[in-house]
Amino acid sequence: MNIRTIGKIDRKIYSCITKDIVTDEVIITDERIQHIRERYPNDYECYYDAMKEIVEHPDYLIETNKSNTALVLKEIIAVNNKVFKVVVRLNTSTDNPQYKNSIITFMKINEKEWKRLLKNKTILYKRE
């Protein structure tokens, strides 16, 4: 399985999801890239470079119904004020030691979806 390193998380920020974070490295697998390409055509190709910024400097971390997983929201001014949603699964001590923090999915979202998520979901972290 081919994996690509995306960046490194700040464990202090992501500790609101779980204190048990084994590594700060964030990766994406070829299988997940294929998933993104199939469901959100062109988002991966157009915004791949934004992923590092999103996971390293999130605007919000939102609770999900999956353990050790968060929805990462980020507005990137440099990319024409686009807003993005990334799902990150954190690697904990109960996981396979070869695993890393992984991007599960990634997409550009619209302002309406951004506002809906912030209104209806539990915010675990908000950038000051």
Describe the model.
The chain has helices at 11-14, 30-39, 43-47, 50-56, 111-120; strands at 3-8, 25-29, 60-63, 69-76, 82-89, 101-109, 123-126. It has 128 residues and is of the alpha+beta class. A seven-stranded mixed β-sheet has the order 1-2-6-5-4-3-7.
Main traits of this protein?
7 strands, alpha+beta, seven-stranded mixed beta sheet, globular, 28% helix, 128 residues, 34% strand, single chain
Roughly how much helix do the residues carry, as a percent range?
Answer: 25-40%
Could you give a short account of the major beta sheet? 7 strands, mixed
Globally, the shape reads globular
Radius of gyration: 14 Å
Distance between the termini: 38 Å
How much strand content do the residues show? 25-35%
Largest beta sheet: strand ordering: 1-2-6-5-4-3-7
| Uncertain stretches of 5 or more adjacent residues | none
Number of strands: 7
Order of helices and strands: EHEHHHEEEEHE
Overall pLDDT score = 93
Question: How many distinct helices?
Answer: 5
The structural class is: alpha+beta
Compact description:
A hairpin with a 5-residue loop joins strand 3 (60-63) and strand 4 (69-76).
Secondary structure elements and their pairing?
Layout: E1 3-8, H1 11-14, E2 25-29, H2 30-39, H3 43-47, H4 50-56, E3 60-63, E4 69-76, E5 82-89, E6 101-109, H5 111-120, E7 123-126
Parallel strand pairs: 2-6
Antiparallel strand pairs: 1-2, 3-4, 3-7, 4-5, 5-6
